[in-house]
Recover the amino acids of this structure.
């Protein structure tokens, strides 16, 4: 009995793990992907609906239907999906809206688009202008649908109102920011195709496109009303976007709207059924996979894209294309800053200030060119450009500090080396002016060549003071030491002439030199005047020839 219990438990575990990580068993239903928060002003993601999208491995294209509440959006989507009201999206007959947030049909329609199998998602959105909601919330729903969809169906009953045109302000801003990029580049971002869907039985002798064009004509504004000006600007922008929008009319399916869910195609108006099928064909013809940064998105990538959008649109009090541009440019800014850091980091520091400034200017120009080629947005991109410039300047200041530190470190090392060399030359056993001058020149030359960067000027001044002081001290000590050397040399020659080689003339000459140095100079010349005498110069020249030459250095 105990063994059979364990067996059942193991089989339950195996079944649990075999089913995968998804908690959804039947995807043939509608799932929420975005829901309102408790205040009904901002949006949040719904994990359940995201699971349905993440499992898709093929490129995704999305069809979103937007419009006023109670305008038949959910019914329209069910018709496009060939589903009944009881199978597809929930349809509300009451005064409050049935759909909250944005919902997705869990089973995408498979289409071959340009030779690539594409999963087409159908999205139902919460209607505008329903009771108990803010305009900001409606704007966020509209903005999110406009960004994430490939085809945006604007479902309008009967006619196009001023408020309907005003609602498109975000779509216009979005198109102005992102539309018109060179296709095929790494950052191509195409806004949704706008499909005006007018549900009306009689067009009064006009085509639906003529009706839309007429609604988009500029309204006279003799009184200078600011609201009319704003709507007129939207009209003009929508007219310019003509190649990215189309219009379609759809008659009412039946007079008894509350019973539509219980009717088959045979009971619906034949003209409606025909037009509905034409609408399906139109959507299939204009839809394209969602492309971001030159790449079509699969399920997981689409969800990641959605998370980015929601982060941007929830920023601040109202959704703005500026925040959207900022989010999408974030990755490009990071890549540009990485490029700048890599270029500047490759340099061998320290550098002269002019060289570093020149490399900075060239690298900044290169980075700005890369950003200009890849960035999102037109108008709002200036904020990203300014931010990039600020970041570059901030990092450049760090490189300036690093360059100054390395310059100071190098110049200090050279200064210390020269100072040590000057100290060594001061205490030569056999003092040599030529050797001192050679060391002095070598030290000065190596410092001038090797010390670079912003610290060079200050260290040059220190170096000059140190060398001048060393030279002055050496010259003073040199004459005294040489005089003492000659006195000692004379005494040594006296000893050598008398006791070693016993050569009287050498001894006499040594005594004459000794007496001359010790008595005559003190009686007739001062020590300083001796050093300017031609005889002394001769003695110094002879000494230098004996003590130091490029070949022979007796001091060593």
């Amino acid at each position: 009995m105990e063994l059979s219990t364990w067996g059942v438990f193991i089989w339950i575990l195996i079944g649990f793990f075999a089913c995968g990580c998804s908690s959804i068993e039947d995807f043939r239903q509608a799932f929420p992907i975005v829901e309102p928060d408790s205040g009904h002003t901002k949006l949040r993601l719904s994990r359940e609906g995201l699971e349905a999208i993440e499992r898709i491995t093929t490129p995704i294209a999305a069809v979103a239907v937007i419009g006023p509440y109670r305008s038949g959006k959910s019914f329209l989507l069910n018709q496009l999906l060939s589903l009944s009201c009881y199978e597809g999206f929930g349809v509300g007959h009451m005064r409050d809206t049935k759909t909250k947030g944005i919902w997705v049909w869990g089973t995408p329609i498979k289409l071959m688009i340009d030779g690539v199998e594409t999963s087409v998602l159908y999205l139902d959105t919460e209607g505008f202008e329903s009771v108990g909601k803010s305009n900001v919330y409606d704007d966020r729903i509209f903005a999110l649908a406009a960004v994430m969809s490939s085809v945006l169906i604007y479902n309008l009953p009967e006619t196009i109102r001023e408020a309907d045109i005003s609602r498109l302000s975000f779509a216009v801003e979005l198109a102005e920011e992102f539309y018109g990029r060179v296709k095929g580049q790494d950052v191509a971002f195409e806004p949704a195709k706008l499909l005006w869907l007018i549900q009306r039985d009689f067009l009064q002798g006009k085509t639906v496109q003529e009706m839309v064009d007429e609604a988009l004509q500029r309204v006279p504004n003799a009184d200078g009303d600011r609201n009319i000006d704003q709507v007129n600007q939207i009209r003009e922008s929508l007219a310019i976007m003509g190649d990215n929008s189309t219009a379609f009319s759809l008659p009412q399916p039946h007079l008894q709207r509350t019973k539509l869910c219980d009717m088959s195609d045979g009971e619906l108006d034949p003209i409606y059924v025909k037009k509905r099928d034409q609408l399906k064909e139109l959507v299939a013809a204009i839809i394209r996979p969602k492309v971001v940064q030159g790449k079509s998105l699969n399920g997981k990538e689409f969800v990641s894209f959605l998370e980015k959008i929601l982060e941007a649109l929830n920023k601040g009090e109202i959704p703005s294309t500026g925040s959207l541009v900022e989010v999408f440019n974030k990755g490009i800014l990071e890549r540009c800053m990485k490029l700048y850091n890599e270029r500047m980091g490759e340099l061998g520091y320290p550098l002269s200030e002019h060289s570093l400034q020149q490399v900075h200017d060239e690298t900044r120009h290169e980075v700005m060119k890369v950003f200009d080629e890849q960035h999102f947005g037109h108008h709002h991109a200036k904020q990203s450009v300014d931010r990039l410039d600020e970041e570059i300047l901030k990092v450049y200041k760090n490189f300036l500090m690093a360059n100054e530190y390395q310059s100071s470190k190098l110049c200090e090392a050279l200064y210390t080396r020269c100072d040590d060399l000057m100290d060594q030359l001061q205490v030569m056993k056999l003092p040599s002016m030529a050797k001192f001058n050679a060391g002095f020149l070598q030290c000065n030359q190596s410092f001038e060549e090797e010390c670079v960067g912003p610290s060079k000027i200050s260290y040059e001044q220190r170096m000059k003071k140190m060398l001048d002081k060393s030279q002055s001290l050496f010259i003073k000590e040199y004459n005294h030491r040489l005089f003492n050397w000659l006195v000692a040399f004379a005494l040594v020659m006296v000893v050598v002439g008398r006791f070693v080689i016993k050569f009287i003339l050498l001894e006499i000459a040594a005594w004459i030199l000794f007496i001359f140095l010790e008595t005559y100079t003190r009686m007739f010349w001062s020590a300083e005047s001796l050093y300017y005498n031609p005889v002394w110069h001769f003695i110094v020249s002879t000494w230098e020839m004996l003590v130091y030459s490029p070949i022979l250095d007796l001091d060593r």
